[in-house]
Design goal:
By secondary structure, the protein is an all-alpha fold. The protein has one domain: Tetratricopeptide repeat domain (Serine Threonine Protein Phosphatase 5, Tetratricopeptide repeat, Alpha Horseshoe). It is built from 12 helices and no strands. Helix 8 packs antiparallel against helix 9.
């Protein structure tokens, strides 16, 4: 048995337990900001939009700020206004689909529809395939989910997208009882980032669904691999902390 396989076997029980832990504390709406700087920026943008309501860039920025504060319904409202002006924007469809998955009661069918539309516009969008794979998995459409994870792998060279897709396949195959295939997917993720084994052993597996790549910033549509890895690790710590609060 290889060292990687031994690690996989060791963490498998932890992973199966974590499959049932999907809920993290969040708020859908309201103005309870955690960051005063974000609150100030939101107030400024809202005032500016009163005078220039069709300013798409400011509207997107406002929506992203709401999303960053987990004010999900506020974000959805703003993304809807953007889509009224730019209905064929795959990036905004991806953002909106992600937003619907972040509601306390996720609207998965709505998210599936938005992601499907995004892929009609950009068939090779790896982030859309990845997010659709996760949504389909949560809807119990396992085979379709597996297909979408493989599509994400085919259309990306981004390391965190690859890690996310391989771990998603690991999850899908584990649920199907195909542990040999699950082992192979873990090995592929491990080859990209060996620290993934420690992440899983620390009970932080529920972090492989990342925000769309463009969430990193207005001027960083295609961030470096280092930036994506940094975002992955930040999401790991963030979600782990939220899970610990729920347990407490």
């Amino acid at each position: 048995m290889s060292r990687i396989t031994s690690v996989f076997s060791f963490i498998l029980i932890v992973f199966i337990i974590l499959q049932g832990c999907h809920h993290f504390s969040k708020k859908d709406t309201g103005y309870e900001f955690t960051d005063p700087a974000v609150k100030k920026k939101v107030e400024m943008l809202e005032k500016q939009l009163e005078n220039t309501p069709n300013d798409i860039n400011k509207r997107i920025e406002l929506a992203k700020l709401f999303l960053s504060e987990n004010m999900i319904l506020n974000a959805i409202t703003e993304f809807d206004k953007v889509l009224q002006e730019e209905p064929e924007s795959a990036d905004i469809l991806l953002f909106q689909a992600y937003s619907y998955t972040q509601l306390i009661k996720p609207e998965l069918f709505k998210s599936e529809s938005l992601l499907t539309k995004a892929l009609e516009i950009q068939p090779r969008n790896a982030d859309a395939h990845l997010n659709l794979a996760h949504v389909l998995g949560k809807l119990g459409k396992e085979e379709q989910s597996i297909d979408e994870f493989n599509n994400a792998i085919e259309f990306t060279g981004d390391p965190t997208t690859l890690i996310s897709a391989h771990l998603g396949l690991m999850a899908a195959y584990t649920r199907k009882g195909e542990l040999g295939k699950a082992d192979m997917e873990f090995e592929k993720a491990y080859e990209i980032y060996p620290g993934i084994s420690d992440i899983i052993k620390r009970g932080k597996f529920e972090t492989f669904t990342l925000p769309p790549k463009i969430f990193l910033g207005d001027d960083d549509i295609h961030p470096s691999n280092e930036a994506r890895i940094e975002l992955l690790l930040k999401e790991i710590e963030k979600l782990s902390g939220e899970k610990d609060e729920e347990v407490d």
